[in-house]
Amino acid sequence: MVKIRNEKFLTNSMVLLRLFIGWHFLYEGIIKLYNPDWTSFGYLASAQGPFRSFFIWMTGDSIIGVADWGNMIALVFVGLTLLLGIFEKWGAIVAALLLALYYLAHPSFPWVAQVNVEGSYWFVNKNLIELVACLVIYQIPTSHYFGLQRLFHKKETLSQAN
């Protein structure tokens, strides 16, 4: 086990990571909610890699609306949980699942043409990096330190003391 020299610095860094990722997800969700023309159709229809057929299936007339709303709701849920510091582990799990889907729709494999992505990557892209960061947030929760969960944590501590 690694000894952490400055635990407060680690905690503050984790809070910042949680807040920044929460902001990113909330912003993406709100922008999509308030844009009546937004749809995930283009992103899904241009999917590549081994799961292409699954993402193409999601572009069907009966599924695309569910995919769009599911994406928007999940983005806002993750954003709120991470920003507010409540149900943070659930937010981190949903974020990791969403990011895994985004990565698998457009994997950054060297043998796959990079379509509908920012830049050219070999295996690791920003979705994969943010996914790993969400796994770290899941492992090192900070909402009891900074967030609404802290209010509930104090109540639990007081009731256990009595």
UniProtKB/TrEMBL annotation:
The chain crosses the membrane at residues 15-34, 54-83, 90-109, 129-148. The keyword Transmembrane helix applies. InterPro entries: DoxX. It is a multi-pass membrane protein. It comes from the Bacteria. Pfam families: DoxX. It is found in: Membrane. Keywords: Membrane, Transmembrane, Transmembrane helix. The keyword Transmembrane applies. This is DoxX family membrane protein. It comes from Maribacter polysiphoniae.
